[in-house]
Design a protein that fits this description.
The chain is of the alpha/beta class and 175 residues long. It contains 7 helices and 6 strands. Strands 1, 2, 3, 4, 5 and 6 form a 6-stranded mixed β-sheet that branches. Strand 3 and strand 4 form a beta hairpin. The radius of gyration is 17 Å and the shape is elongated.
Length: 175
């Protein structure tokens, strides 16, 4: 593999764990987005952004948006980490919402993260409670995979962090 860096933005720890594993598996350098500079990042051949998905937006994506025009000669990819188990419809929606214009051709990979209300900020817990209230009015058979996760009383299924989710990304980076 080329000289690479993994930059990440993690709110509850799952993204940081994936970024750390990815660095170990690739030998790439690792840096939190807010603790690095674009001048450092642009010295690498391969750049992997790891960001949590919050309300369909990928954390840290603004860093790439701001600097993408200077990265045309780099191999850039994104690992999105979300509470929803892997679902093509969810991935397509995340891609359509986030990867527009100059970001359209960036490969997007996905890993299942954490949905743990006990670790959420007050604001996030409040939003989840409001969402649960509105979901209680829906037919459970019509829930999306994220809605099922939110409404689940057994949230163990939403703490599914595994190195195996990185295999497609590792394969892509090895090419």
């Amino acid at each position: 593999m080329n000289k690479g860096i993994i930059i990440y933005k993690s709110k509850y720890g799952a993204t940081k764990q994936y970024a750390t594993w990815l660095a170990e598996m690739t030998g790439f350098d690792l840096a939190e987005i807010h603790k690095t500079s674009f001048n450092k990042v642009k010295t690498y051949d391969t750049i992997v952004l790891c960001g949590g998905v919050y309300a369909s937006s990928i954390a840290g994506l603004s860093f790439l948006k701001k600097h993408m025009k200077y990265l045309n000669d780099k191999k850039v990819t994104i690992l999105a980490v979300g509470a929803t188990p892997y679902d093509e419809h969810v991935i397509t929606a995340v891609k359509e919402h986030n990867l527009k214009h100059e970001l359209n051709d960036i490969p997007l990979f996905y890993a299942h993260g954490i949905f743990d209300e006990s670790k959420m900020s007050f604001r996030d817990r409040t939003l989840i409670k409001m969402l649960k209230k509105s979901l209680m009015k829906k037919d459970p058979s019509s829930y999306t995979s994220l809605e099922k996760t939110i409404m689940s009383t057994d949230q163990e299924q939403a703490k599914d962090i595994q190195k195996e989710y990185l295999e497609p990304l590792i394969s892509y980076l090895s090419k």
